[in-house]
Amino acid sequence: MLTRSLARRAAAAVTGGALVATGLLAAGPAPQAHAATESTTADAAATWLTGRLNDQHLLSYQNFGTVSVDVGLSVDLLLGLVATGDDTTADQIAAAVAVKTGEPTGYGRPYSYSDTFNCATFAVEPEAHTYAGDSSNAIAKALAGLTATGLDDTNPAVADLTARLGQVTIDGGADAGRITDSPTRDGAPIPACDYANVFGQAFAVRALDAVGSDEEDAALGYLLSQQNADGSWNEGLRPVGGAQPAANPSTDGTATALVQLQQIDPSAGLAADTQAAIDKGIEWLELTQAADGSFGGTGQFGSNANETGLAGWALGLAGEDDAAASAAGWLAAHQVVRLAGCTTSLDAESGAVAYTDASLAEARTDGITPAVAGEWIRASAQALPALAYLPAGAPALTGPVGYVKAGTAVSVKVAGLPKGAQSCVSGAGPARRLTGSGAVSLSLPAGTRNHTVTLRTLDGTTTTTVKALGAAKLKVKVPARVKAKKNVTVVVTGLAPRERATVTVGAKKVTGTASASGKLTVKVKTTKRGKTKVKAVGQFADRKGKATVRVV
């Protein structure tokens, strides 16, 4: 029996809520898809997520005050791990999901509950009614997940889910190929409570393709028929026996459909139509992507990791490298990254991806508390495949050429990092974090010292040296007397190796460069007789010394 809260969450999965609705992702890449490359940002997210698996290899988190085991979200993680190459953990999750789908009231099983909440009108009625139906979205998702790990119909769970997916797929008429929950209210059909949506339909196409079902063409044809003229998809499907709804584009729905379509091998009769739908959908995504790479900025949720993750994955599979990299960059900038030298209170959560700007800001203050852990797990799971499209960087760190004055601020330049990649610059004054390439200002302490400045990223470290010169009293050695209009030899010691210095004898100045041992010897022609001041100033005014010579 479903509780009221479960029923309402199911309704939310149909009617909206970017973070909730996309509990439906896609399976491993088909030959025509562009696979992601190895990525340390994706690896970090995968490590954090797998650390949240319970002893059954399923994700769990606090939900309305109790611990909830989320099988659907575990499938999301499974699919992300398959996409990024962690087959071992994906197989463990698949085994756990298979067990859950076999339980009498387990994942993907028919539901039945009594409630005063009317799922068709969203009104609370005086008396309770019994609602029942199939869980078509979950059936399709579970089967797509299990087959993504290589399981086939020799596996009892795959065989059972294949049969049940066939049962919830309409066989004929205008709705042929559509999945449906066949919902009832007190035994009578109530189509408005059908929770089947584009996510489940896309999963059904993927799953039917994987098991070689004769129903694949019908399911694929139906999914293609739901594409809007602009290339997008709605979240909802055309009601069974009803009219096609007006376009209400969903980034989640569109991206999920596109990810799925790029991972199947359609029949010859539908191959051209499938590719045309992919091309048109990818074009729509590119037109709706924000300048910062994110998606969702125009919706009720704002830019978020869920929509950006799904869209970035779809773009990456399509070979749209720049757009996919831009989406991955936004995600990487919202990832918790532990970097030596730049410790934060969130270091223990390294790899987690924040849902929104606000989520990240809140966590920096309060941490990832049990109350919000579910949001972080879901956002991270749906960002995981897209993070793999962050381009590999070639980190470079350059500092000022030559000596700089100690106790001042200097700028070092970080180059070669992709957009969104986080780094830590440390080794001279307080450490600084940086996102992407750019310049970092470092406050040097007082004193002469060669500072080794280190740039740390998830990929490793690189260094440069900043040579700082502090105040110094130079030793100036001259003969006691020298004849007028003759050269006086001035020896300055205490300089830094190759430091530039200026020697003044009376009104005459000579500039030179110290030796490797910090010694400068110059000859200056004298003029007037009498006691003459000799001054030496190093590269900075607080590095100086003096002496006197008598000109006779």
UniProtKB/TrEMBL annotation:
Keyword Isomerase listed: no
Species of origin: Nocardioides simplex
UniProt cross-references to InterPro entries, sorted A to Z: TAT_signal, Terpenoid_cyclase/PrenylTrfase
Domain of life where this protein originates: Bacteria
Protein name: Terpene cyclase/mutase family protein
CDD domains on file: ISOPREN_C2_like (cd00688)
Alphabetical keyword list: Signal
Endpoints of the signal sequence: 1-26
ATP-binding is among the record's keywords: no
